Amino acid sequence: MRRALLLLAAALAACAASSGVVPLSGGTFLISRSEKGLSTTGSRVKADAIKEANAYCAATGMRSEVVKQSQEDMMPFRSDAQAEIEFRCVGN
Where would a tag sit more exposed on the chain, N or C end, judged by fewer CB atoms within 10 A? Predict the structure, then answer.
């Protein structure tokens, strides 16, 4: 029983969803992410979104600049931890 609970917790901790990079107007982009897990926080999800933005901009030889951000912690049995960032790619 304990092993089954540990496997379930590990599976939930690994569940993440991302919108991917979504182009907006004015050269800005949006990434929206949510992650399941009892120890997942909104700030951790936001950090993952920023890493995704960094990788996107780095692929074009640029760096990311966060323009707008929001985050929400997980609420048991109500919602996953969530974050959203709006960013642009700028020269190094």
Answer: N
